[in-house]
Amino acid sequence: MLKITKKEKSWILYDWANSAFALTIMSTILPIYFTNMVGEVGLSKELATSYWGYTNSIASLIVACLSPLMGGLADYMGMKKKFFTVFSMLGVVFTGLLAFIPYGMWMPLMITYVISLIGFSLSNVFYDSFITDITIESKMDVISSLGFAFGYIGSTIPFILCMGLIMGVQKGVIPLGMVFTTKISFVITAIWWFVFTLPMLKNVEQVHGKPYVKFKPSETFNKYRESFKRVKKNKKAVIFLCAYFFYIDGVDTIIRMAASFGTTLGIDSTTLLVILLVTQFVAFPFAIIYGKLTSIFRAKIMLVVGIIIYMIICVFAFFMTSAREFWILSMLVASSQGGIQALSRSYFAKIIPKENSNEYFGFYNIFGKFAAIMGPALVGIITQLTGNVKNGVLSLIMLFGIGLILLVKNR
């Protein structure tokens, strides 16, 4: 039986902590809240879907620009933990601040969300790279998969609490307004994120890194150039990053746009929240299964399997017409989303130098975030042009196809 160390457990717990943001804020309650809010000020649900896509693209652009610089700086000994602390706390604070934005002021709400998403995303740059500090190479696939798996379960606990409050208000059991109750869910998410980040802050330290040198702001451009030169020499890592750029684009877009997509199809908020909750529970064992299967099949093969399943999802979504079919779609997503994310992280960690792990993961995240600009924007534009969100989702199959070809050809 695999023995999990204290450092590995603490690292896994950060997935448990910040996944509450990914589920409650990024994927479910906030997008539904936003769609209803803009609907009340006279905008259509389709336009709300487009605006939500554009907002995620803006946040991803900012993160993509900052990731390689932050990653390069954090590879100096003693810096990775400091950057992780700053950005994780930025995400926590601005998630809580969402509750204090007056209802109807959708622009300030989106600005606050963008800042919280920047904190979430950049803290993950450093979190992901810590995998080379907390475990050995032979355990990376399993530990990475456990992180995503427990992230799914951990995110459901505050989500169930928030959903219970919302449903209690809907049924008249809890004498609170829906808007106020939704805002409470933002505070609950922030508290959960903060509390379960503490073990990571206490027990995990940087092991691999370069000797510290004082950084001058005027050297920023040179840092970008030097980092790029070092990374591009690793041909296998570069080709993988190109493949990752395309296929993770589709994965992230489906995760971020799922609630908005379901709302546009006419699925009521309660049903949608229940579906997305069940998705988290189903994703838990499948993420672990993907990790376990790497002892039989190579991680690369399991990544190919995950991409093919997502291509099937895009086609299925195009023909979907009912809540029952949305259930089936969600279970298909749950079967692969954790596995493809976890194995991408561990596969990349094994083909890069440990002393430059944060620099490499800076580019890993920049490729992921630039992809997350393209995907939501693609769905938003095609939905706006055609008036049908299904066309937007179907367009993602192209991204999965390109990613699959590059991954298979990378030797």
From TrEMBL:
Top-rank taxon: Bacteria
Major facilitator superfamily (MFS) profile domain segment(s): 236-411
Gene3D superfamilies according to UniProt: MFS general substrate transporter like domains
Record has tRNA-binding as a keyword: no
UniProtKB keywords: Membrane, Transmembrane, Transmembrane helix, Transport
The protein, known as: MFS transporter
TM ranges: 12-34, 54-76, 83-104, 110-130, 142-167, 173-196, 237-259, 271-289, 301-320, 326-348, 360-383, 389-408
Organism: Peptostreptococcus canis
Principal subcellular localization: membrane
Cellular compartments annotated: Cell membrane
Pfam families according to UniProt: ATG22 (PF11700)
